Amino acid sequence: MRIHVVLCAAVLLAPLWSQSAEADEVGLVNGDRYTGTVLTLASGTLAFDTGHGRVDLPWPTVTALTVETPVIVTVDGGGRQTLPRLESIDGWVAIGDSVTVPLAAVLALGRPQNSIQVTGGVSAGLLATGGNTAVNSVRVDADVVARFHEDRYTARSTVNRSRDRGVETARSASAEIRYDRFLTRTVFGNASALFTSDRFRDLDLRGNLGVGLGVQLADNGLAKISVEGGFGYVSERYAAAPEPDRSYSALREASSMEFYFLARRVTLFHRHDAFLSLSEATQTQFGPAGVRNTNVQMHNGMRIGLGLGLVMTVQYDLDYVRNPAAGRKATDRRSGLTFGYRF
User: Per residue in 113-130, pLDDT tens?
Assistant: First the structure.
């Protein structure tokens, strides 16, 4: 396979791929200029996202400003209104028909907030060979995140299938739903449900349920990071009759991280959920006495923007169970190269 060659070429070419979105621009009294996105103007400070991070600029040092998308403007003595576009010319800003004010008279800027913000994507990877090797495989991933004021809803699913010379070698699927309720700007309550099925691990269905608290450590142009902790419940149903079904209460720990590079054209991501049982396993059912049941599901990878919403994703997944079914390995690994679309 030549995945590494394709990946290196994509990384080298990433800076050449153009973005369709129009950028805002700000000029300073010292001659510096920034291109990116105006976030807010409040208390005499302009918050500006350059695509590589946020900068806070003292408003009196700003001599020129162009905002290409709708913006809420508050003017000294003129009230508050939404403009489709804002541009300063020679230090003056048009805020209505035949009405202009000095740039210094602008007291606040803000972005109109949609009642619902939705992001997500879908991707698929296919492989078919013939001749001396006959392998057919498919991987499909989909995810969607919806934010409505203080509520955030997340849904994800993955399907893996593989056949080698007519013999099935992989058959697994997972689905996840999550609900976050923000109690403050960064702290949220959380409830989650994760379901997994894997024929070759003799796993008919595993259900991981969790509740707890989380903290949004970062959510900006450089990174999105959150950590969670709480309690969980794990139920495992196995396909083989001799293998006993299992269930246990557990401590739950989870994290989600995304790091952005090259104006968000390249994203490195990591996500995991870990469940550690609160009681020790027994000799007769789950292996040696004194060993706690543990389940960790991890997803790592890199997503590369190809333009127009198209992406290439290289991903490595790991599923670890301390006490697997009889004759099965504790760790299951999957890797894949997929292409898809994100919105």
Answer: 766 889 999 999 987 766
pLDDT recorded at residue 286: 45
HSE on the CB side for 287, CA within 13 Å? 17
**What is the model's pLDDT at position 282?**
46
Tell me, what's the pLDDT at 292?
72
Domains and CATH numbers, the chain: 17-110 (no CATH), 117-342 (2.40.160.40)
User: What whole-number distance in Å separates Cα of residue 286 and Cα of residue 304?
Assistant: 42
Structure pTM? 0.66
Residue 289 corresponds to which amino acid?
Answer: A
Question: How many Å apart are CA 199 and CA 239, to the nearest integer?
Answer: 8
Tokens of 186: 């960064």
Residue 328 backbone dihedrals phi, psi, to 5 degrees? -110, 155
Residues 6+ apart with CB under 8 A from 233: 207, 208, 209, 210, 247, 248, 249, 250
